[in-house]
Design brief:
By secondary structure, the chain is an all-alpha fold. It is 77% helix and 0% strand.
Length: 200
């Protein structure tokens, strides 16, 4: 998707995780997408006001592209062999558990977006229908209650992401294992870190 690289308009200056190019031809593409997202993250952190929808969309599109690259890398024969042959499954299990947690977070975010959209449409419809009617207060109160629930859900999801980030920092070192498996685990960790950042 060439459009996603245009939408960022940023330089590739972030740190590389140095994937061996023999692992898969898309290793360079993975690093480029990861660097774009890291640049997006740095630029979004420097902005003092909330991100506009175009910036949020750029982050999500970049994240989707990164996941496409990750899938290509994980389906390579070298990565598959490294995962199958690894005796100590704890490190791999941790990486996979984090992936499942991230999928759960994405599902929660998606459900919240749909729910917010539905409630906003209901409120707009009520405002058009009642047009100055005193009973509109009930619809507004219902919407405000819903907003409070959404804020609680968002705060809960952010705490969950923060907890996941702290576990990434304290997870097992990958230096004492096979080079290819170490690379696979680094890919999982990098994807997890940047995903939590984009979702936050």
């Amino acid at each position: 998707m060439a459009n996603s690289s245009v939408s960022f308009g940023l330089q590739y200056t972030a740190r590389s995780i140095s994937l061996p190019s023999r692992l898969h031809p898309n290793a360079i593409r993975f690093e480029a997408e990861l660097n774009k997202l890291k640049n997006w993250e740095a630029s979004s952190l420097s902005i003092t006001e909330p991100l506009c929808e175009v910036a949020i969309q750029a982050g999500l599109v970049g994240l989707a592209e990164l996941y496409n690259c990750t899938e290509d890398l994980m389906q390579s024969s070298t990565a598959q062999a490294a995962l199958i042959q690894h005796q100590n499954g704890i490190v791999v299990e941790e990486s996979l558990e984090r992936s499942v947690e991230l999928l759960d977070s994405c599902g929660i975010v998606r459900d919240l977006f749909f729910s917010v959209k539905e409630h906003v449409q209901e409120l707009q419809s009520a405002l058009r229908r009642k047009n100055g009617d005193a009973s509109i207060g009930k619809d507004i109160s219902r919407y405000l209650c819903f907003r409070k629930q959404v804020k609680k859900e968002v705060a809960k999801s952010l705490r969950s992401l923060k907890h996941m980030e702290s576990r990434i920092g304290s997870s097992h070192d990958v230096l004492d294992i096979d080079h290819h498996l170490a690379m696979v685990i680094r890919v999982f960790r990098e994807v997890t870190v940047i995903t939590t950042s984009v979702l936050r």
